[in-house]
């Protein structure tokens, strides 16, 4: 089993994708105090905004290993700071293992300066203007706005042996193929999915609300006369499908409407957009009540699921959707297909 993560060409750029800001010669690395020690996150004290006019490099800790070169794959730790806001943006030191990084020609000048041409074991600081780091557009996801300069502190931990690199690349290729197959299988399943539940109509349990369906409209739930929820997960059917049983790990294709018990209107519905939803089931990607209630149901079924708070959104609820932490949720689900 591979213990370390691997970043190949495109991945290295996306994972380490940050940004940069303006510059002046006297506001580069001289404008920041860095305390660095191999194996530990650096301590950074800003003396003002970082505004380098070119890529500046300083070796903070001199390693005694072989010098890194383009084409190598090495394990590294990194720390990125935003030179405009004077704040940490991203650090790998919070993770247990360093990142495996391929030192390829696609790395930007600032990243090359940080990771290439230094003895293994070194800790290197780089200050870079926007255009030499990750492009002037920045990386909003990591807190870098357009033109923000970047401070990179890179630790070269160890080289990755060639056989391990080959194994990691093989693993990536296998994962990519598996993802492509899964995507193709899902598209096929969507094309073959039912338009609505299909099977024998059955009488629901007495606790269930009355559900009215009209073509092209969101189903209406009427809770008049329904008993108070008993605090347990409850499942009943309106239509008993005859298709295959849904298995944990499949991607479920379904139409659904969700409403708080005794609520006046739905808080969510796939019917509103007209297109069935698709989501992994039985693997913790949806609320527990869905995982527990829908795995094992047959394709074609229309089920009503009543979910207690602890199997829904918990004590926090979903305030934006009007769901409180004490609310019982009721879903009507048409199970249309699975991949």
Provide a descriptive summary of the structure in words.
- The protein has 339 residues and is an alpha+beta fold.
- It folds into 2 domains: 155 residues, Chitinase A, domain 3, CATH 3.10.50.40; 140 residues, Chitinase A, domain 3 (Roll).
- The chain is 17% helix and 29% strand.
- It is built from 5 helices and 18 strands.
- Strands 1, 4, 5, 6, 7, 8 and 9 form a 7-stranded mixed beta sheet that branches. Strands 10, 13, 14, 15, 16, 17 and 18 form a 7-stranded antiparallel beta sheet that branches.
- The radius of gyration is 27 Å and the shape is elongated.
- The two termini are 28 Å apart.
- The N terminus is likely disordered.
Reading the helices and strands in chain order gives EHEEEEEEHEHEHEEEEEEEHEE
- Specify the helix fraction band: 10-25%
Query: Which shape, going by the Cα principal axes?
Result: elongated
Radius of gyration: 27 Å
Please name the CATH architecture of the largest domain. Roll
CATH C-level of the largest domain? Alpha Beta
Quick one: how many beta strands? 18
Structural class: alpha+beta
Uncertain stretches of 5 or more adjacent residues: 1-25
Number of domains: 2
Distance between the first and last residues' Cα: 28 Å
Count of helical regions: 5
Q: What is the average of the pLDDT values? A: 89
Largest sheet composition: 7 strands, mixed
What percentage of amino acids are in beta strands? Answer: 25-35%
């Amino acid at each position: 089993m591979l213990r370390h993560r691997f970043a190949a060409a495109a991945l290295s750029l996306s994972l380490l994708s940050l940004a940069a800001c303006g510059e002046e010669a006297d506001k580069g690395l001289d404008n920041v105090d860095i305390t660095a020690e191999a194996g530990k996150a650096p301590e950074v004290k800003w003396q003002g905004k970082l505004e380098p006019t070119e890529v500046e490099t300083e070796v903070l800790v001199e390693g005694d290993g072989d010098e890194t070169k383009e084409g190598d794959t090495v394990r590294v730790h990194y720390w990125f700071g935003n030179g405009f806001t004077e704040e940490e943006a991203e650090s790998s030191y919070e993770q247990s293992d360093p990142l495996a990084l391929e030192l390829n020609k696609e790395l930007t000048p600032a990243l090359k300066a940080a990771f290439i041409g230094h003895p293994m074991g070194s800790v290197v600081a780089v200050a870079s203007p926007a255009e030499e780091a990750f492009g002037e557009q920045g990386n909003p996801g990591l807190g870098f706005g357009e033109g923000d300069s970047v401070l990179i502190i890179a630790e070269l931990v160890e080289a990755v042996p060639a056989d391990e690199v080959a194994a990691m690349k093989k693993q990536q290729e296998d994962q990519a193929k598996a993802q492509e197959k899964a995507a193709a299988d899902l598209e096929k399943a969507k094309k073959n999915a039912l338009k609505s539940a299909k099977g024998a109509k059955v009488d629901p349990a007495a606790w269930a609300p009355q559900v009215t369906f009209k073509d092209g409209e969101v189903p209406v739930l009427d809770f008049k006369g329904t008993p108070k929820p008993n605090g347990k997960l409850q499942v009943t059917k309106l239509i008993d499908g005859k298709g295959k049983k849904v298995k944990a790990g499949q991607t479920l294709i379904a139409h659904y409407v969700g409403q708080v018990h005794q609520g006046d209107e739905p808080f969510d519905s796939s019917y509103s957009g007209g297109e069935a939803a698709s989501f992994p089931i039985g693997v913790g990607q949806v609320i527990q009540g869905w995982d527990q209630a829908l795995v094992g149901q047959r394709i074609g079924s229309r089920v009503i699921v009543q979910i207690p708070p602890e199997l829904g959104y918990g004590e926090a609820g979903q305030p934006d959707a009007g769901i409180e932490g004490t609310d019982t949720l009721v879903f009507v689900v048409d199970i249309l297909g699975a991949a």
